[in-house]
Design goal:
alpha/beta, 6-stranded mixed beta sheet, 4-stranded antiparallel beta sheet, binds adenosine-5'-triphosphate, 237 residues
């Protein structure tokens, strides 16, 4: 099987600082793959590099069989890869409904009504709040909106940067449950998380990033049981 996303031998820098060192990883269609690592390990940099900022200095990135290493970010979105960045980046002055409409930019309006209804089924809270300004919603609601907005662009794959950040355990469970539903509907998910426990429990496979390099990989269950992972990322329990 050809992976839908293939990152090969990638190096990335911020000026003189090397943030990624020879990173290689693969995500197959329909998989949930998590990337875990400590603060500053390079997780966000990897997600941003896939979207071309910063551009990788070495190595290549392929999506759906095409080389996207040098492709512009908006073109990548049109090819069916969507990003839910850290901090959510919803439009705070717009309503929930208007934010969802903005998500259709890569694909146009042909399916907007059906897709919005599907999002309201996935996240009933968004339906209740459809006329509320997004900036006034709770962190969890904003995260749900960010995911729903990305899905309005009908991507084949979504990349999420720390969706659990700052959320209460119950809200994290709601968001991760939605990710399971999204994967079951045929979308591919690549998730970057500091919350190793939840991210490994959700993932089919996972990678551990340490100082910009991939240190370990395996099934979510294998890594959850791995003593080194437990010691470093799961509080040693
Ligand atoms: P966190 O979980 O804290 O977000 P992370 O694993 O996502 O961490 P990155 O944000 O990718 O880590 O950072 C990787 C390294 O690159 C860090 O040493 C960080 O200080 C550095 N870095 C990130 N962004 C920049 C930037 N814009 N300019 C310079 N250095 C940066």
């Amino acid at each position: 099987m050809t992976p839908i996303l293939q990152v090969k031998n990638v190096d990335a820098f911020y000026g003189p600082i090397q943030a990624l060192r020879n990173v290689s990883l693969e995500v197959n269609e329909g998989e949930i793959v998590s990337l875990i690592g400590a603060n500053g390990a390079g997780k966000s940099t990897l997600l941003m590099s896939i979207f071309g900022q910063p551009r990788v200095r070495q190595g290549s990135i392929h999506f759906a069989g095409e080389d996207i290493t040098q492709v512009a970010s908006h073109q990548i979105a049109k090819r069916g890869l969507a990003q839910v960045p850290e901090g959510r980046h919803i439009f705070p002055a717009m309503t929930v409904e208007e934010n969802l409409l903005m998500g259709t930019v890569p694909v146009g309006l042909a399916h907007v009504d059906a897709d919005r209804d599907a999002m309201f089924t996935l996240f009933p809270r968004l339906k209740e709040r459809c006329n509320q300004r997004a900036g006034t919603m709770s962190g969890g609601e904003q995260q749900m909106l960010a995911i729903a907005r990305a899905l309005m662009g009908r991507p084949r794959m979504i990349l999420l940067d720390e969706p659990s950040l700052g959320l209460a355990p119950k809200v994290i469970a709601t968001v991760f449950d939605a990710l399971k539903h999204i994967a079951a509907s045929g979308k591919t998910i690549f998730l970057v998380e500091q919350n190793a426990n939840q991210a490994l429990a959700l993932a089919h496979r996972a990678y551990v990033l340490v100082n910009g390099s991939v240190r370990m990989q395996g099934s979510g269950a294998e890594l959850l049981a791995n003593p080194e992972v437990r010691q470093a990322y799961l509080g040693g329990h």
